[in-house]
């Protein structure tokens, strides 16, 4: 079960690096090369949105069907295990949200840069 979270962690890290590369100032030729390469990667990388959404649904389902441990019947180790699972679920929700948000950010940055390039081309023709 931990493999899916490792994959999601690596994807979020890669998306963060790509977003950083896209927002750093660089010469026009390098920037256009980076944007065209990232644009080619964006369509196959769209799998991350439904994958993260499915993981969010899985977290929600597990949260709804989790045994509650908040009475005096629970031992301290059971209470610690319960709190640990709650913290893990919260971390994983943040990871899923970051994956979706970073994908959207990279997509919008590439789209804005392409629009700027097309507007510059129209202005150059005039």
From TrEMBL:
Chief location bin: endoplasmic reticulum
Q: Please tell me the species this chain comes from.
A: Castanea mollissima (Chinese chestnut)
Q: Which GO annotations describe the biological process of this protein?
A: endoplasmic reticulum to Golgi vesicle-mediated transport; intracellular protein transport; protein localization to endoplasmic reticulum exit site
**What is the official name of this protein in its record?**
Endoplasmic reticulum transmembrane protein
- List the keywords (alphabetical): Endoplasmic reticulum, ER-Golgi transport, Membrane, Protein transport, Transmembrane, Transmembrane helix, Transport
According to its UniProt entry, the function of this protein is described as: May play a role in anterograde transport of membrane proteins from the endoplasmic reticulum to the Golgi.
The cellular location(s) given in this protein's UniProt record come to: Endoplasmic reticulum membrane; Membrane
Q: State the family it belongs to.
A: Belongs to the BCAP29/BCAP31 family.
Q: What are the BAP29/BAP31 transmembrane domain coordinates in residue numbering?
A: 1-121
The protein's matches in Pfam families, at most eight in alphabetical order, are given as:
Bap31 (PF05529)
A GO CC term assigned to this protein in UniProt: endoplasmic reticulum membrane
InterPro entries given for it?
A: BAP29/BAP31, BAP29/BAP31_N
- Highest taxon of the lineage: Eukaryota
For membrane topology, the record states: Multi-pass membrane protein
Residue ranges crossing the lipid bilayer per the database entry: 6-25, 37-57, 89-107
